[in-house]
Design a protein that fits this description.
eight-stranded mixed beta sheet; seven-stranded antiparallel beta sheet
Length: about 375
């Protein structure tokens, strides 16, 4: 789930509006600036949902990438599923293991509503990201009577693989793995190696300062194995689902498995030769480097929720507070929706990464000094985690 699973947000905005108001201006390649949720072509041109629907009528698989903790991403996914309902598709989920499909079948038959489904799946343990983020998707599936299926290898199996490798996996769990496992190309391995080095270096610095293993190490090979099983398993289940339903399959997965067509799509092309695939990815920023590798993009500026109870959005060179969770540390400190964060711990903040860097240096549990712009005046606040 690389590049697609930042730390779990404990603050939810299930009612986040899809289209946020913004200042008029120029888009990335000329024209009007798109609004969050708008669809774009790789050349930056805006398109409507109908354009995706027309393209999807000739497709076998429609992959829609997401950042798991971003409410806007799930609003867009629900909107596109509703727009594509006329194709009578089925939906495959990364979030649910294939072994839990009997529970999803009860949902498909109308025996379980969204809340009962979450309880039956033990969603917090199954996935970890709050169910409220995914509620718009399940409500749409129920309203449109679109069948849904889990695609994934159970997470406990993948966790065991990460810890002990294939040799440490019990026979009953090995039987749940795809056979054969389809591995990435050499070019993709090199991209993953760079990601692996960066991720491991950050993780180990936080943990103990130990050196990061090299991309040629056994740890890296285990990482490649887990990612390959993850993508192969989802692709194989999606292909099986298409055979059963005979209709297009919409796949919802972390964008690391969707972007560039090197994850699930690459395996689908091997498992289901000749399959017609449409890729739809989020675009956090509007530039030519971001709009590469997918057929369509939906504009979704970086947002972040967190343990402080803030929902944040990068906007116009500042970090905007979109909302504050009731009863949260942010609310107790006096942060208000509409505030713009100017500095944290005395360090200027222009993008979300600045905020994380500024906050990372404080001692655990120590108060956090935050300066915000509220209207035309600066306000100094103190957040206590």
């Amino acid at each position: 789930m690389f590049r697609s699973t930042p730390s779990v947000s404990l603050f939810l905005l299930p009612a986040l509006v899809l289209l946020l108001t913004g200042c008029a201006g120029k888009g990335p390649f000329g024209g009007s600036a798109p609004q969050p949720g708008d669809l774009l072509l790789p050349n930056g041109a805006a398109v409507g949902d109908g354009d995706v629907v027309r393209r999807a009528y000739a497709a076998d698989y429609i992959l829609i990438g997401e950042q798991h903790d971003n409410p806007l991403h799930h609003q867009v996914q629900a909107r596109l599923i509703r727009a594509l309902a006329g194709l009578r598709p089925a939906v495959g989920l990364e979030m649910v293991a294939a072994e839990q499909n009997p529970t999803l079948e009860r949902f498909n038959r109308g025996e379980l509503g969204p809340d009962a489904l979450a309880e039956a799946l033990d969603w917090p343990k199954t996935w970890g990201f709050p169910f409220a983020l995914y509620r718009p998707i399940f409500e749409t599936l129920a309203e449109e009577k679109i069948p849904v299926r889990g695609l994934n290898v159970p997470r406990r199996v993948l966790d065991s693989l990460r810890r002990a490798g294939m040799e440490g996996l019990p026979a009953k769990d090995r039987a749940l793995l795809p056979d054969p496992v389809l591995f990435p190309s050499q070019a993709r391995r090199e991209e993953l190696a760079e990601f692996f080095r960066t991720h491991e270096a950050m993780r180990r610095r936080k943990a103990s300062g130990a050196p990061s293993p090299s991309a040629g190490s056994g740890t890296f090979e285990r990482f490649i194995l887990v990612q390959s099983i993850w993508d192969t398993g989802m692709a194989r289940e999606a292909a099986r689902l298409r055979t059963e339903h005979g209709t297009p399959i919409i796949i919802l997965a972390g964008n690391g498995h969707v972007e560039d067509g090197t994850g699930i799509a690459d395996r689908l092309r091997q498992i289901d030769p000749g399959a017609r695939i449409v890729l739809i990815s989020p675009a956090p920023r509007l530039n030519k480097e971001e709009l590469r590798g997918a057929d369509y993009y939906y504009y979704a500026p970086p947002t972040q929720g967190g343990r402080l109870g803030l929902s944040l959005l990068e906007e116009g060179g500042t970090v905007l507070v979109r909302a504050v969770a009731p009863g949260s540390p942010a609310e107790r400190a006096g942060v208000k929706a509409g505030d713009r964060i100017l500095s944290v711990a005395g360090k200027p903040v222009a993008i979300l990464a600045d905020l994380h860097k500024a906050a990372a240096g404080r001692e655990r549990g120590a108060p956090l000094a935050v300066r915000v712009l509220r209207g035309e005046r600066n306000v100094d606040l103190e957040l206590r985690p």
